[in-house]
Design brief:
Blueprint (H helix, E strand, L loop, with lengths): L12 H9 L7 H36 L5 H22 L8
Length: about 100
Amino acid sequence: MKTATLPSLRVGPELREAAESVLKQGETLSGFIETSVRETIERRRVRAEFIARGLAAREEIAKTGVFFAAQEVHAELSAKLAKARARLRSRVPKRARGA
């Protein structure tokens, strides 16, 4: 696939210095910018999908009238989490737990 370039970006010296100050060893400013653009694209896609699911759920509730209160969902999830933690604790030897 043929590569393309993104538009040039003019920024103040403070922003450039801030970006350069967080570069990892061997990382280029161009690489940092590319990674930032990719991550922002992914974050926006995930957010858009989340919103779409929420709107679809709202429509489903309007059609069926079936929904669950947040407190009920939180209680069920907390119970599942407590069970999972208890199972993990029972599998870990007492020495490893610091007992």
